[in-house]
Amino acid sequence: FVDASGGFKLLNVAAGKYTAVVKPLPDNGYVKTVQVDGVTAAEGVVDFTRGARGSRLKIVASTGAAQMSGKVLDKDGQALAGSIAFVWLMADSKELKEESMIPVEPDGSYSRKGIRPGKYRVFAMDLMHFAGLGTIRGNDLSDVFARGEEVEFKEGDKLTKDIKILEKEAAHDKK
Length: 175
Prior knowledge:
Layout: E1 16-19, E2 30-36, E3 39-40, E4 45-48, E5 57-62, E6 66-73, E7 85-90, E8 101-103, E9 109-115, E10 118-126, H1 127-130, H2 142-145, E11 149-153, E12 158-160, E13 163-164, H3 168-172
Parallel strand pairs: 6-12, 6-13
Antiparallel strand pairs: 1-4, 2-3, 2-5, 6-9, 7-8, 7-10, 10-11
């Protein structure tokens, strides 16, 4: 629990690595920085494998998250309908996270709020179309990640972007 001054205390922390999470956050909120004893923790992962006794954890949240919305389009440029599709917004092809996947609604629309500023690749796939391809190996989407369009979000950005669904052939195309 967080006190009135924004402070918190964690007791009896077992040795290990932890990802700092702040919940609930408003739609425009994200974790901006995480520091342990004044050192920034990459990707918000704190390393307490040697214990946490006496460590000072500082988490800074911001209400400047970006947001993105639009339509997913089929090969003919029409809104995708009746598919099991996702828009993928990823900073790294080998780090598939739950928040990387944005479900596509039945009318072909998608929307994501609370996006941490930074550079990403964005692409859309119909999961039934790609089934059995071996395109997704574990959490590695390198083959399709490279085909995605690079987007960069700054604090408070509101991007509207239509995305064409990746075709099966395009996933393995090497230019």
